[in-house]
């Protein structure tokens, strides 16, 4: 008895609400659709591979990406590295690698070797050293006092 | 912390021509003193808020300016950087990195003993506060007024009950007026 009543009630509610909900959906669509992971990667790959991108824009894109709750995919990392090559800034490339490694968080043991394996051809092609080759996986210098700098 | 390093030291000891040159720079940059603040460092990005500040942080790993000022030796390495990066030695790469950035990720995320000074300062402040209140209790405040002794307090309680103060939830609600005793 209760289940029949509930079903009737649900049907009545649905028919009453159907107009509203479709209107709500239409309004929400104005804010853009949900972006899939592949589209997201593609968007950033395109952003970094644009002709005539400058250091300012690269930094902006990288700062944004490293501020998000994600690990950049190898394709995006490669695109970023190539962008730094085009603006001739190797420091930026090294920092970008460090940032991507840091984004692996507590999964560094599994994720980082995977990323490195994927991007190694690009690193070798461009002549960018890995963080381990530079010795930057461990602290290299102690910070000097502000007054001696 | 690192941003503090950009403040020029010994401003008062500068000679007048140097100061004049600095004034020139100040006005050359729209009067906000950006050049005065960052010297010859390149402004390379937006940073965190558009101000030319340098700091190392994983939230914003690419600050608005390079860490070091441009020098002739560095220019030579920058020239080499324009070519094939495979021809750069490891030291050159490190030099370029340290020119742009102060500390690596591993360095600025390394555990630092800074918590000691934080805890120390906090405990000092608590100790000073307690010292002040003890001193005030001992020296500044006089004796408590006579209304604090038992006799006056019970007289006050009696008066409260007689006037039926707070009869719903307060003291008088606990007093039975028929039997003249506490409920």
Topology:
The complex is a heterodimer of chains A (149) and B (183).
Chain A: H1 2-29, H2 37-49, H3 55-66, H4 74-86, H5 90-103, H6 108-126, H7 131-134
Helix pairs in contact in A: 2-4, 4-5, 4-6
Chain B: H1 16-28, H2 34-38, H3 72-82, H4 90-100, H5 105-108, H6 114-140, H7 150-162, E1 175-176, E2 181-182
Antiparallel strand pairs in B: 1-2
Could you write a compact summary of the structure shown?
The complex is a heterodimer of chains A (149) and B (183). Chain A has 149 residues and is mainly alpha-helical.
Strand content of chain A: under 5%
Rg result of chain A: 24 Å
Strand content of chain B: under 5%
Q: For the record, what is the CATH homologous superfamily label of the largest domain in chain A?
A: Cytochrome c oxidase, subunit Va/VI
Largest interface: pair, residues per side? A-B, 35 and 35 residues
Q: Low-confidence segments of chain B, ≥5 residues, pLDDT <50?
A: 1-11
**pLDDT < 50 runs, ≥5 residues of chain A:** 15-25
Q: Treating each run of at least 4 consecutive H or I residues as one helix, how many helices of chain B?
A: 7
Strand order of the largest sheet of chain B: 1-2
Could you say how many structural domains of chain A there are in total? 2
Order of helices and strands of chain A: HHHHHHH
Output the CATH class name of the largest domain in chain A.
Answer: Mainly Alpha
Q: Any overview of this molecule?
A:
- The complex is a heterodimer of chains A (149) and B (183).
- Chain A has 149 residues and is mostly helical.
- Chain A folds into two domains: 1-33; 37-134, Serine Threonine Protein Phosphatase 5, Tetratricopeptide repeat (Alpha Horseshoe), CATH 1.25.40.40.
- In chain A, 69% of the residues lie in helices and 0% in strands.
- Chain A contains seven helices and no strands.
- In chain A, helix 4 (74-86) runs antiparallel to helix 5 and helix 4 packs parallel to helix 6 (108-126).
- Residues 15-25 of chain A have low confidence and may be disordered.
- By secondary structure, chain B is an all-alpha fold.
- Chain B has three domains: 2-108, no CATH class; 113-142; 147-183, no CATH class.
- In chain B, 46% of the residues lie in helices and 2% in strands.
- In chain B, strands 1-2 form a two-stranded antiparallel sheet.
- The longest helix of chain B has 27 residues, at 114-140.
- Residues 1-11 of chain B have low confidence and may be disordered.
- The chains are: A mainly alpha (149), B mainly alpha (183).
- The interface between A and B is medium-sized, with 35 and 35 residues.
């Amino acid at each position: 008895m209760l289940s029949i009543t509930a079903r009737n009630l649900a049907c009545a509610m649905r028919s009453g609400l159907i107009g509203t909900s479709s209107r709500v959906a239409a309004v929400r669509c104005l804010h853009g659709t949900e972006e899939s992971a592949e589209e997201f990667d593609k968007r950033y790959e395109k952003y970094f591979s644009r002709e005539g991108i400058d250091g300012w824009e690269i930094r902006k894109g990288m700062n944004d990406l490293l501020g998000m709750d994600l690990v950049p995919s190898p394709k995006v990392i490669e695109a970023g590295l190539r962008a730094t090559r085009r603006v001739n800034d190797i420091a930026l490339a090294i920092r970008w690698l460090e940032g991507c490694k840091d984004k692996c968080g507590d999964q560094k043991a599994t994720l980082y070797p995977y990323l490195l394996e994927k991007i190694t051809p690009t690193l070798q092609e461009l002549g960018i050293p890995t963080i381990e080759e530079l010795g930057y996986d461990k602290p290299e210098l102690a910070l000097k006092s502000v007054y001696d700098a | 912390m690192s941003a503090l390093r950009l403040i020029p030291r010994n401003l008062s000891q500068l000679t007048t021509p140097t100061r004049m040159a600095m004034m020139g720079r100040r006005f050359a940059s729209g009067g906000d003193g950006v050049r005065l603040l960052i010297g010859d460092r390149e402004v390379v990005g937006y940073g965190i808020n558009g101000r030319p500040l340098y700091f190392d942080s994983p939230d914003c790993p690419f600050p608005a300016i390079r860490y070091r000022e441009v020098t002739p030796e560095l220019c030579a390495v920058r020239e080499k950087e324009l070519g094939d990066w495979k021809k750069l030695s490891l030291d050159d790469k490190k030099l370029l990195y340290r020119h742009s950035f102060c500390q690596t990720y591993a360095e600025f995320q390394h555990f630092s003993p800074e918590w000691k000074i934080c805890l120390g300062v906090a405990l000092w402040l608590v100790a000073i506060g307690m010292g002040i209140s003890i001193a005030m209790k001992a020296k500044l405040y006089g004796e408590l007024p006579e209304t604090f002794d038992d006799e006056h307090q019970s007289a006050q309680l009696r008066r409260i009950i007689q006037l039926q103060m707070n009869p719903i939830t307060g003291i008088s609600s606990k007093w039975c007026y028929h039997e003249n005793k506490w409920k």
